[in-house]
Design brief:
The chain is an all-alpha fold and about 80 residues long. It has one domain: Orthogonal Bundle (Helix Hairpins), CATH 1.10.287. It contains 3 helices and no strands.
Length: about 80
């Protein structure tokens, strides 16, 4: 249920906000990996959640890009 709510929130965001969210999640993931390596953090599931969220965001951005390309193609072909 949580992932569906998160997906709806992500779909409502614009492209630049999604790019910022990807950067934030990637940074957070890297910090968590370093903390785990230094035995400061034991929350492995947060890394997995971040990876899934990054994949969701990239899927949304790709879908939007393909929709734009399809729209332009239809306009050209008339």
């Amino acid at each position: 249920m949580k992932s569906k709510e998160r997906y709806k929130k992500l779909v409502a965001m614009n492209d630049s906000d999604l790019q910022k969210e990807i950067f934030k999640l990637q940074s957070e993931t890297m910090i968590k990996k370093i903390d785990i390596a230094n035995q400061k953090y034991k929350g492995f599931n947060k890394i997995s959640e971040n990876r899934h969220d990054i994949a969701r965001i990239k899927t949304i951005l790709t879908g939007r890009l393909l929709a734009k390309v399809e729209e332009i193609t239809k306009e050209k072909n008339g």
